[in-house]
Amino acid sequence: MIVYILQSEVNVINKQKFLAELGKLLTFMYEEDRQTALAMYSRMFDQAEDEQALLSLLVSPTRQAVVVARAYNAKERRLQVHAQFRDQDGGDYPQDEIPDFVLAIDKIQQSLPLRGEEAAPAVPAEQFCLFESGNGEEAGPVSEKPGEAPAENPAEDAAPSDEEVPAEGEAPAEDAAPAEETEEAPGSTRGEDAGSEEAPPVQAEDEVDSFLAEFSIEDSELGSDEAPQAEEGIVLMPDEDGEEAWAAQAAAAVVEIDEGGELVFQSVRKPRVFLLILYIILAVPVTLAGVLLLLVPTLLALALAIGVITSGSAVLIASFSGFAVFADILVMLGTAMVILALGLLFMWIFIWLIGGAIVGLVRGVISLGGRWCYKEVPAV
Amino acid sequence: MKKGWKIVIAIVLVALLLGAVCVGVGFLTGADMARIYSVLDDRYSITAYYEYAIQVAEVLKAELF
């Protein structure tokens, strides 16, 4: 697939830029987890002999963010993070509660030496510039096949043993990971059968490639005014209100790219049930009282309009039927015009009270309820 | 609604202006209110309705107060 990238040449980036971009992409994680992930990637750079080779092997921050996000269970992590703060004052992860994303990063780290033996594609600029509004660099389409990502032989890749964990002592998953967790492939979709230890990495990489391929923009789409098609991705935003439903959307939030090339998270509105019920109980009688109050001037305006328009019509008809002097007819026509003008004014006031005031009151109450009783959560 | 208000107000003002001009021109060219009233009274019995309304008001006033 031909993708759109912002530079025609390969970017030469460094550790700082990679980590900065990755940090922006991982904002959906809890801060503790995000720092942990960034620290693990930072250690990869520290341990790497050739930084550019490592960058090529990692492909891009976007790719790594996809891998981490697929292994990130926000709901589970929320409980764990809370428990850690309560029990350990934010310390390292318990040995039996090593997060999946840590294992995923660990497996990436373990697989890097093997992957480095094969040629890796250059890092496309688009994947480093998703959050940049432009730095003066010229844009130009360059084709890239996500499938050309560093080829790896899962059989030779020899998925890391269950005891392999992040190297340095700072890593939360320093010690041996539980076997059932390590069997899960890095980046594999949650809930999938772990299967063998060799097949899942291939599947995970394929899924990442597939996501990135679908996430890219074809040249033909660049000229159209239509919004980019929303793709199912893996990015989600944590809910600060403490609701739980969003966590079930892990690895499945819908994102799209706006005209500026930045990620836009699609969201859906979710009701706060208790507030909504309370609001309905209060708003319905208040709204009814308001409508009844507004009905009084409304009906009064209607009565006045009908009476005045009827009188004006009668005067208009009389001006053409009973008068012989033109001056009298002229006076009657002028009077009829004035009366009909007042009748039109009263009729408009009636319409305004019905269509503007009463309907506006109802819409305002509904809108207020929508703002108070609904919240936006990432769409799936 | 805002645009509707502008349109209605414009129509009403134009109609009032034209009506005032017509009444003014009519009186300037010899219109007589007594003659006009007599014609309307013949057609719509304005005096009769007026007197009837006065009587009803007096009766109500006597009953209520």
Describe this structure in words.
The complex is a heterodimer of chains A (380) and B (65). Chain A has 380 residues and is mainly alpha-helical. Chain A has 2 domains: 15-265, no CATH class; 273-378. Chain A has 12 helices and 5 strands. Chain A has helices spanning 15-25, 31-47, 51-58, 61-70, 74-88, 100-115, 154-157, 179-182, 199-215, 219-222, 273-319, 326-373, and strands spanning 231-232, 254-257, 263-265, 267-271, 374-378. Mean pLDDT of chain A is 67; it is low at 1-11, 115-122, 128-202 and 222-252. Chain B is mainly alpha-helical. Chain B has 2 domains: 1-30; 32-65. Helix content of chain B is 89%, strand content 0%. Chain B contains 3 helices and no strands. Chain B has helices spanning 2-28, 33-44, 46-64. The mean pLDDT of chain B is 92. The A-B interface holds A 314, 318, 321-323, 325-338, 340-342, 344-345, 348, 351-352, 355-356 and B 1, 4-5, 8, 11-12, 15-16, 18-27, 29-32, 35-36, 39-40, 42-44.
Number of strands of chain B: 0
Poorly predicted runs of 5 or more residues of chain B: none
Element string of chain B (H = helix, E = strand): HHH
- For the secondary structure, the number of strands of chain A is 5
Mind summarizing the main beta sheet of chain B? none
Sheet/helix structural class of chain A: mainly alpha
Radius of gyration of chain A, in Å, reads 33 Å
Helix content of chain B: over 70%
Low-confidence stretches of chain A: 1-11, 115-122, 128-202, 222-252
Count of domain modules of chain B? 2
Largest interface: A-B, 29 and 29 residues
